[in-house]
């Protein structure tokens, strides 16, 4: 196994993207139930908690950000914990978990704080840092929305701005879908811990539930903001489109005036001023005069 630490009497093993051989070796070492082994081998399992006599098997997902595609994806964690062991397996490597292991490896615990080296408390610490990470991402997400909003109100209605809005809309929908199952997971985990763990950890799980509420509230507000940005973008884009159509329409009217008069003087019939030496210049000025009259008329009725 890799990334294994021992905190007093508790062993914590963390493995990312294990091979089939590694999973089979874990199952043989700890004599895991065949259902657990099957779940470890399977990918993209729904969030759940399976409670055995003295063991908990947990499947949960936390969002992970891809800096290249600028989108989130789910990092799946499968957790096995019992009295003195905590085994954590993730689909992709988590630096947060590794940093937590480094912080806890040489931790000093007082006699009345022995629960802090239990797998159940370590699980709380894991959930806590992952929620902190989500809160940090939500803060950045909201700052990005402010930047996009400024771009939109500066009339930067281009492909880049639209892509950013669509990405944010997709990301916030993913975060909502990813975080929602944690509410039920934490309730089940809190009840399960009471049954098989002698120490009282309610206050810690209440802290997690409070953070979850904060995250869900932030997601709800961000969802409203993203939808509002999309509506604003569409509204301003419609205004720009209408302004473009308006300019083209006015331009077409001016061209029509010129075409009408030039067509009349292109007829093979007798016309006023056709024999005048300055007839061409006079026709041009007539066209310009009509354009000015139409322009003043449009201005008067506030159509420009």
Question: Which SSEs are present, and which pair or pack?
Answer:
Blueprint: E1 4-7, E2 10-16, H1 20-30, H2 34-41, E3 48-51, E4 55-66, E5 71-82, E6 85-90, H3 95-104, H4 119-153, H5 159-179, H6 181-196, H7 202-264, H8 279-300
Parallel strand pairs: 2-6
Antiparallel strand pairs: 1-2, 3-4, 4-5, 5-6
Helix pairs in contact: 1-2, 4-5, 4-7, 5-7, 6-7, 7-8
Largest sheet: 6 strands, mixed
**What is the H-and-E element order?**
EEHHEEEEHHHHHH
Structural class: alpha+beta
User: What strand order characterises the main sheet?
Assistant: 1-2-6-5-4-3
Spans of at least 5 consecutive residues whose pLDDT stays below 50 are none
Alpha plus pi helix count: 8
Intertermini distance? 74 Å
E-strand count: 6
Report on this structure.
This protein is of the alpha+beta class. It is 61% helix and 15% strand. It contains eight helices and six strands, in the order E-E-H-H-E-E-E-E-H-H-H-H-H-H. It has a six-stranded mixed β-sheet. Helix 5 (159-179) runs antiparallel to helix 7 (202-264). The N and C termini lie far apart (74 Å).
Defining traits:
304 residues; 15% strand; single chain; 61% helix; six-stranded mixed beta sheet; alpha+beta; 6 strands; 8 helices
Short description:
This protein is an alpha+beta fold and 304 residues long.
């Amino acid at each position: 196994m890799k990334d294994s630490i021992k905190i007093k009497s508790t062993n914590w093993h963390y493995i990312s993207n294990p091979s089939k051989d590694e999973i089979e070796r874990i199952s043989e070492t700890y004599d895991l139930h065949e259902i657990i082994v099957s779940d470890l081998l399977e990918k993209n399992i729904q969030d759940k908690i399976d409670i055995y006599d003295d063991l908990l098997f947990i499947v949960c997902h936390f969002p992970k950000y891809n800096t290249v595609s600028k989108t989130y994806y789910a990092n799946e964690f499968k957790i096995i914990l019992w009295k003195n062991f905590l085994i954590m397996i993730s689909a992709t490597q988590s630096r947060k978990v590794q940093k937590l292991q480094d912080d806890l490896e040489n931790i000093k615990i007082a006699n009345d704080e022995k629960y802090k080296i239990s797998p159940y408390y370590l699980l709380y610490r894991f959930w806590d840092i992952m929620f902190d990470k989500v809160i940090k991402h939500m803060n950045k997400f909201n700052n990005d929305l402010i930047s996009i909003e400024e771009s939109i109100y500066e009339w930067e209605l281009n492909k880049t701005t639209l892509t950013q809005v669509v990405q944010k809309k997709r990301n916030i929908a993913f975060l909502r879908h990813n975080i929602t199952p944690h509410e039920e997971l934490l309730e089940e985990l809190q009840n399960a811990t009471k049954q098989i763990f002698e120490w009282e950890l309610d206050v810690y799980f209440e802290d997690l539930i409070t953070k979850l509420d904060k995250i869900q509230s932030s997601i709800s507000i961000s969802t409203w903001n993203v939808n509002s940005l999309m509506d604003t973008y569409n509204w301003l884009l419609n205004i720009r489109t209408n302004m473009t159509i308006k300019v083209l329409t006015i331009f077409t009217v001016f061209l029509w005036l010129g075409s009408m008069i030039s067509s009349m003087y292109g007829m093979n019939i007798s016309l006023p001023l056709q024999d005048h030496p300055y007839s061409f210049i006079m026709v041009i000025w007539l066209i310009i005069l009509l354009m000015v009259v139409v322009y003043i008329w449009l201005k008067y009725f506030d159509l420009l």
